[in-house]
Amino acid sequence: MPLRFQAGTGSWQDLIQAVFKQEQELLAHRWYPLAEIQRRHGGSALFDVMFNYTHFHVYKDLVASSAADMKVLGQHGFERNNFALSTNVMVDPISDQIRLSLQSNGETFTTRQLQRIAGYYVQTLNAIASDATAAYQAHNVLSEQEQHLLVRSWNATEQPYARDKGIHQLFEEQAERTPDAPAIHFANTQLSYREANQQANVLARHLQGLGVGPGMLVGHCMERSAEMLVALLGILKTGAAYVPIDPDYPQERVAYMLEDSQVQVIVSQPWLVDSLPAHQAQVVCLEELDLAMTVGNPELDFYPQQPAYIIYTSGSTGKPKGTILPHQSVVNFFASIAQRPGMSADDRILAVTSLSFDIAVLELLLPLTLGAQVFVVSRAVATNGAELVQQLEQVRPTLMQATPATWRMLLASGWSGDESAELKMLCGGEVLPQEIVQPLLERGASLWNMYGPTETTIWSTLEQIEAGQPILIGQPIANTQTYVLNPQFVPTPVGVVGELYIAGDGLAWGYRHRADLTAERFLPDPFSTVPGARMYRTGDLAHWNSAGKLECLGRTDRQVKLRGHRIELGEIETVLAQHPAVQSCAVIVYQVAAGNQQLVGYVVPEPGTAPALAELRAYLRAALPEYMVPNTCVLLEALPLTPNGKVDRNNLPAPWRLRRPRPALCRPHAIALKRLS
Description:
677 residues, alpha/beta, 3 domains, nine-stranded mixed sheet, five-stranded antiparallel sheet, 20 helices, 23% strand
């Protein structure tokens, strides 16, 4: 009989009694044909795991009967089926021992996996026998050996790095080693390491004169250019942290970021100053400074746990949240990425990512600590497939990092790839689609899938992708630990889905002015021996495979990744609900086609109103960046609800079903007859 049971919390006794009760209720239907049930459910398989408990009481009766002139020599059962897993439990009539046998169809589980599952049964039965009143949800089915494998062996990532250095210090050391080597390229501008360091020093000294120093925050609002990168270095040289502000962000969002960060100084460009919302900060433009001056590296009291930057990402409350990242976390990341996937002084990096997206740090700053060359492209080029293809052909980079959307855009624009097969391609920010893997592998030297939230410093795991292999997020980078845990923070077995937690040297301080959210997402690390160690709750579902690599399987909440941007759908809904013509609303990500996802808003208008799509999108654009504005909004009479009164997002109609049908075509004489009538 198919049995569906939702486990909750309670003791082993509670669990056994609840399953027994449900099984008793099913017994009345035990003769109903299984094939008929399957037919009524569309022909799909009803279950793939079978559990069979056998206890032939008659055997014991025969043994106990003195009148019976017979002897039970033993018992044996044989069964073969095509279920993924068959669990057979039999009670020996003579010894009363429980015998457990597992069978598989030969495709789903390996022998090693079946041995592990058998071990979980043994662990569980021992736990029940030991204390049937214990809470079953807190039970750890893992053996000591497997627990050590998951928590220790696969997280043995300790590697040395410059723990006492800051990002700017690594750059200064590199500028000292290779002063005349080319460092930064943009359009017709080229800066050597000496020139970039000198110009950054001029800005840093000027900022120090304005009172900027360690621990302070400085706004950075600049268009993509060589000066944009010089400004980053100059801010870091003061010991302050930079707050990237995208010039294309709406005024309302920029105003909130300036208010929340409380920056006292903003580094910008003359043509952008007037576009900034009202603020109290002092604005500094590099164009107003004598960048040709020769000044030494600034001296300052610095410690590596000082913040390097604050990145504002989408927040479920309707306002973005600022994540504070320290220098030490970034320096650890630099050392790890330089080793694997690998980056050196011989590399040419094409930088295409917005500075407001934390992965830009890999493209812009890491190369300058190694002696490599950074080729910065404008926003216009980065978002235009044909122009970006032209840049690739001209620069011939050896490394480029981009989101799947950008790689797909290049493929659609006719990019033929790197003839010298030197290009190392890093892909991250959202799920890597299988359909672009082979085309990319044909166009470069290697392809890497990168995974990590902003809160754990850019990327936390990585995996080199091979043709025909599953797309994994791989293994943790240096000095990083990854745990897959159940809701009770117990490690899940190999192959079992849980929530992914990340610990180690990459963790952020937390969220600015959000102590509640920091405490909710950054938790004590129960597996670390380091006092005060924390782990970050990613909200991503994952599992380990038998080779010690991670596969990411989606989210536990409503956060989504779209074209590399992390989006809280709740933030869009909060803003949309404030429109005077909107009574209620919902926002989802809709799959239009393979590799093409779009944001769709569903709106129940106030009685007597019918807001137009253009009106709703314009309203959202005033408060949200363009990547968070739905492509379309659908008007509904009411939102579908679940039985408990929540919005049933799975039953929101597909947008195309609600488009008005075209008028039926009819013959001209039919129109004339209608007019005559």
